Structures are given as C-alpha cells and as structure tokens.
Amino acid sequence: MSEAAQYFQFVLAPQMLIGLVLGVAVILVALGLTIIFGLLDVINMSHGEFYALGAFVALALSTIGLPFWLLLLLVPLIMLPVGYIVERGLIQRVFHSGDRHVRTLLLTFGLGLVMEDAFRLVFGPNPHRPETPIAGGVEALGIFLPSYRLFLIIVGTAIIAAVAFVVYRTRLGAMVRAAAFDRDMAASLGVPVQHVYAGAFAFGVALAGLAGVLLAPIYSVFPTMGRDFILMAFTVVIVGGMGSITGVVVAGLLLTQIQAIVSLYISPVWSDPIVFGIMVVMLMVRPQGLFGRLGHG
Amino acid sequence: MTAPVLETRDLSINFGGLRAVDQVSFTVERNRITTVIGPNGAGKSTLFNLISGALRPRNGQVLIEGVDCTGRPPYRMQAAGLARSFQITNLFDELTVAENLRLAAQILEPVSMAWRPVRASGVAQARVDELLERFGLADKARYIVGELSHGEQRRLEVAVALACKPKVLLLDEPTQGMSHGDTRDTAELIKTLAADVTVLLIEHDIGLVMSLSDHVIVMHQGQKLAEGTPADVRANKAVQTAYFGHT
Amino acid sequence: MVDALTRSMRASHVLVAILVSVSLVIAAVGVAFDDTFYLRLATEALIFAGLALSVDILLGYTGLLSLGQALYFGLGAYLSALVLMVVPSFWAAIGATALASALAGLIGGFIVNRVRGVYFALITFGMAQVAAKIVYNTRALGASDGLIGVPVIDINLGIVTVSSASPAGFFLLVLAMIVILYAFAAYLLDTPFGRLLIALRANEARIPFLGYRTMTPRLAAYVLAAMIAGLSGALYPMLRGFVSPELMFFETSGNAVITVVTGGAGILVGALYGSALLTLLKSVIGSYTVHHLIVIGVLFMGAVIFLPKGMMGSIRPAIERMLARREPK
Description:
The complex is a heterotrimer. Chain A has helices spanning 3-40, 47-63, 68-95, 100-123, 147-169, 171-181, 183-188, 193-219, 225-240, 245-265, 271-285, and strands at 137-140, 143-146. Chain A is an all-alpha fold. Chain A has a domain at 25-122 and 143-223. A two-stranded antiparallel sheet of chain A has the order 1-2. In chain A, strand 1 (137-140) and strand 2 (143-146) form a beta hairpin. In chain A, 47% of the residues are buried. Chain B is an alpha/beta fold. Chain B has 2 domains: 1-81 and 168-247, Rossmann fold; 94-165, no CATH class. In chain B, helix 6 links the parallel strand 7 and strand 8 (198-202). In chain B, helix 3 (97-105) packs across helix 4 and helix 3 (97-105) runs parallel beside helix 5 (150-162). The longest helix of chain B has 14 residues, at 180-193. By secondary structure, chain C is mostly helical. Chain C has a single domain, classed as ABC transporter involved in vitamin B12 uptake, BtuC (Orthogonal Bundle), CATH 1.10.3470. In chain C, 73% of the residues lie in helices and 3% in strands. Chain C is built from 12 helices and 4 strands. Chain C has helices at residues 4-32, 37-62, 70-86, 90-112, 118-137, 167-189, 192-203, 215-240, 250-263, 269-286, 292-306, 310-326; strands at residues 147-148, 154-156, 161-163, 242-243. In chain C, strands 1-4 form a two-stranded antiparallel ribbon. Chain C has a two-stranded antiparallel sheet with strand order 2-3. Classes of the chains: A mainly alpha, B alpha/beta, C mainly alpha. At the A-C interface, helix 3, helix 4, helix 9 and helix 11 of A face helix 5, helix 9 and helix 11 of C.
C-alpha cells in the first residue's frame, strides 16, 4: 500500500469521520435553533440546556431500567410539552414588546442559567457516561468505526431528512412556512398562528432533547454540556443562514470538517478560534448567511 | 438666471419588472407649493424616496439649487437643504414633543456644540419654542409622542421635518387619516410655510390640492401624466380619464 | 426650562450620590472592624459595575446589545497586568489601557457596526469568543492559567499615596474611578451627541433624514463603551494580583448584561446598583448554597418579564418628579 493511502487510512479518514459524527450531532442541535429563529424570530439562548435536559431525562429514566431504544422515542415526547409550556408561559410574555429580539434573548439566557444550575443541583457537577447501546465496531475499506457512531450517522441523517420533509413537503410544514413569512396573512388564512409558534418551539426543543439522548453515549452527560456545544450550533446557524434548514446542514458539515482538518494540521486548540472567526467574517460580509431564511425565497 | 430650487431629470427606478418611477422630470419653483397627485400605486411615495435619498435611482438626476445630488444618502440630501416628512408617522415615540423637535433642530447648532451640554447653546431651543408655537403644540411640549392624538402626531411629523430650516420640504400626505377640521387647519399651516420654504407635497384630498397648490404634477403608473396650475390640470382630458374617472 | 432627558440624568446623579454615601459608610465600617474580605468584595463589585456601565451605554442608550463586552474588560485587565509587571505605576497602566481600549474599540467597532439588531449581539459575541480563545491558547499570556504575580503598587494621587493592598484605600480609589467614568458618560450623554444616541435607540431609521450619518455616533458610542470597559478591567489585577482568561469569557459579558437589565438599562446608575445587588446576593446565597445561579437567573428572568425598566429604572421616575417640583418655574 502506498504511503499516501496509508496516510489517508490511518490519519486523515479517521479524523474526517470524527468530524462527520460531530457534524451530524451539531446539525441535530442547530436544526431546532434555526427553526425557532426562522419562525419566532427568537434567539433561543437556552437551547443548549434543552439539549442537556434531554440527556439528563434519559439518564434518569435509564436508572429505572428503561432501555435506550425506548428513550429515543420517549424523551422527545416528554420534551414537547415542556417546550410548549416554556413558549406559552415565558416567551409569549415578552414576545409582543417592541424589543422582541433583545428581551426574548435575555429571557432564554436567564432560563439557560437556571436550568444549568438545576442540573448541577439534581445530578451533581460530575460527568455521567451512559453505556454505549451498541458495542463493537465495523471496518470498511480498512477504516475502523465504532458501531454506535455509524448508527448515529445513519439515524441522524434520517432525522435531518425527516425534518426537512416535514417542513418543506407537508401541509403542517406549509403552515409553518406561511406563518414565518407573514404572520398576519397566515392568521387570516386560518393558520392557528399561536399554536404553530408554540408547536414550533416545542418541536425545536424536542429535537435538541433527542440530540441529547443520541449523543450522551459519545460525549457524556454533565451540567455544562449544552454550553460547550451550543457555541458551535450557533456558529452553524449563523453561517448557514438564520432560519435556513439547508444552510444548517451545509454549514454543519462544512464547519465540522474545517474543525477536524484544522485540528490535524494546525492544532486542536486553534480550531475554535478559526471556526468562530469564520462566523464573525460571515456576519460582516453576509449577515443573512449562505442560505436565506425560512419562508423567504 | 438662478437654478430652480429642486429639479428632477428623467428620474427612474424599477422594482423587479415594475417601473415604479419612469423618467419623471419636473422643476419646483422657489417658495411655491407644488403638489404631486395620482392614484394609489402611481409612484408618488417612491418619487419622494428617490428625491430624499432613501432610494438610489436607476436613471436620471436630482438637482438641488442646480447642484447634482443624485444618489446621495439622506443625510447629505439634508445638508444640501432638503428635508422630508413621512406618510406613516416616523417619530421618536418614547421621547417628548419638545425632545423630538430638539433632536431635529440640533443640526442648526455649530459642530463645536456637539460635545457641550445641551443647555450650552440656545439655538436649537429657540427653534423648538418657535415651532411649538407655530404648530400649536406649546401646551403639549412635555407630552410623550405616544400620548398625542393622531392629528397632533401628524402635525409634529411636519414640524420635525421643518426644524432644520430646509430650503425644500417634502411632505408625504401630511393630512393622512386626519379629521376634517384638522385637515383644514393643517392646510392653512402649510400655506403659511410657503413664505420661507419651498414645499413639495403629496396629497389625496383633491379639494385641498386645488385650493392649496400653486402647481400640480399628476402621476400615473410611474409616469408624469400632466402638470400645470390646478385649473390646467383639472381641465386636462388625460388626467380626467386616468385619475378623476369619467366626469 | 430643563428638558425631561436632562432631568432624568439629574435623577441618576441623585441615586449615584446615595450609592457613594453608602459606600463611604461601608468603607468607614470596614476600617473600624479591620475588615479585608468584604471591602475587597465591594471593590470587585465596583469594578464589574464599570463593565456593566459600558454595556448600558450600548444597550440602554444606543439600543445595541453587546454580548462581548468582556473582550475590552479582559484587554484592560491583561494590559494593566503586563504594564504593572514591568513598570509598577498606576498611571502608566491606566494610560496604556485607555489608549489600547480606544484603539481596539475603533477596530472592533468597524467590524461589529456593519450589522445591527440581533446580528450585532451575535457578532460581538463571536468576536469576544475569538479573542478569548486566542488569549487562552497564548503561552506568553499564561494560556489557561492567566498572569499571576502582579505586584502591589503605590498609587500616587499627588496629595496622598494609596497602596493597592490597602482594602479601604483601594476601595475608595476604585469608587472614585467608577464615579469619574459614570460622570464622563453622563456628561457625554447630555450633549447633542448623547441625544443622537438616544435617538438611535428610539428610531434609527429617521436619523439620516435629520442630517446625521448613523455610523458615526454608533462607532463613537462603541469606542466610549470599550474605553469604560477597558479602564474598569485595568483595575482588576491591582485588586486581585492576577488575571485569568475567564475574565474574557462569555460568562463575564453575560454577567454584565444581567447586571444592567436587573439594575435598569438606559439610566447608567442601574449598572452600579445592579452590580452591588448581584454581589450582595451571591455572597448571601453563597453562604447557604453553591447554587446561587438559580436564584440570580430567576430574578433576572423576573426583571425581563415584569420590570423591563429594571430595579432603578422603576424607582427613578419618583426622583424625577421630586426634582421637577423643586425646579423654578
């Protein structure tokens, strides 16, 4: 085998695969963030904590013996009413003020702080590592990949495709997009805008929770898990275009690959400044991101 | 011969395929009231946006006192002597009437005053007092804009535009949504303005237009259909069909 | 006639005077009981009040939410520490910080002021994050450990000399600095320039038609805020003897925003009271539980929902009415 092929097999390809796994993970979290922004015009600063909440709920339920596969279904279902209540009970209270952007951002920021500290209070500050649901690994073309990561890539892709299908191809999605484009027009056409808003927030939060369950076996569960992850998710949403689903997928894959390559050739510690630097430059030259907003164009 | 205070030459802009303003040329005489009329969607407000620098024309020119100001941003149009009001009231809602006027009038103060306390110079304050009196808002000076009636807000909108002592004042439907009595009072007020400022007006109330204007420009589908004295315009056949309907 | 905005600013002065009086009492009590811990804590509260003050100039006056003000606070802290380790002079540290933070604010201002609204919040956040990570990775700046061993300095004020190690002396010096920064900001906000900032927040779209570029005042406000944040940060290593990259992290920026919103935005004095309140809460709750963030977070959310003007913003109108009654007609 040539040296280049060996280099690819043992150095580059594993690194790119790690990037791909992270990419799918980030996209799952960023999807909810971008849907909430695209529809409600709300920057959900507590999104990372909802991701953590999903992981903690799964952790708690698994101690009473519920299997991982059931939790994958159950946790998002638990998150739905939580998100719905947060939207109706908290966000709607400041939603109609003139300063919607700032006040909803501040409110969700406060909520995130409270949730993070609550996790610490209930579960303690130390990381918990759930057992990997699928042990072992697979080898393809001489590249080794743990089975669970392969599973994550497949399931993650399926979820992303399903979300895109719901938003772009179903009647429900059409209502959501109509409400995003013109709230009053949608309301006059009989779209229950209030429920669409709360529902979209709940949906975004449930997605974050699902990501929490899926990623816990890889990245562990700890109170600040959302904080570290959400920065990357925000970057992906901004670069992709706030409110764009396509944008999240493209930017998510692109940025995590950049991160993986930078880690390899420069140093892992410089991957963060470079990725955030891309975000700043993107905001400067093209604040609307690579792709347009949900419901627009 | 002195240049006209405001002139447009072949002013044009497209929105997508729509020719919102199409080769509009006219001149505005000093210290006259010139009114632009036309049905909804004729391009009147777009024309104002082009002249005031809110939009950049695709073709044509805007000249203020003979100086080509085409494509300048609004703050440079203001420096050239042009000010405008808005069809939808566009004020500083959380501030009082006096503070709104003071903000608009502070451009009259020398630049060296920018870093001195607001009380250091009386120039802006004198202008505020004068406008409060002239627009009948003196007893409302300390009210927040949101506390004013619609008619008062519309009057303040004009006063704010006038505060910087412009040479040309563009008024976009100043009587929009006003009661009959308020409309008449405002018309009287505008008439008195013409003594020291050139007024270009958009107005829907035809009775008002005819009694107020020295000169009328009729727009239709982005183009200038006709212009002349109110009587000329009223007699114009094309205007009658396009605008007044069939009389 | 005094206009309403000038009178509001005077009401803020009254509240600052009250705060200063209370601080002097605290200093006297501290000296009497030979206390170090609480005086140092109060000094830190004042330093972070300076950071919050800079957030308020942007959020409360210009209408721009900065989620990255820790960038300039950290810049001031690091630069001050570096200067003090070479030349143990208060004035050298302050002078260098003033210059550097103005310059950094100008450069940063050109970057962040290209966008507005929610994008402004995100770009300030991103820029601070880049800077924080760079500092975190730079060995010359102590990387994740920060810089330790900043010497105790004697601050020559002409008449007296104050040691940065003296709890009461340094507390009073920081109090004076923060009051000066407040007075400087309050002065500028009561000029035509300041009125323009208030107008920017109220209705940015109308400003160009009044004859002003919006970029100039926005940039000027940003530079002013950067300088205030930088100068506040410069005091930090004098108090603690070290600086760490945490000073530049989002937690620091976020805390400053919480401080301003809880204390009251758009009144300057809210930043000072907010910082005092939050420090007090943290130390009181902290003596019972480590989970003070739950309480502060709930309080903050309550302020966002029920008290959009914040604590002091809800109190100030009463003082304004009092002042109005005392004015000559």
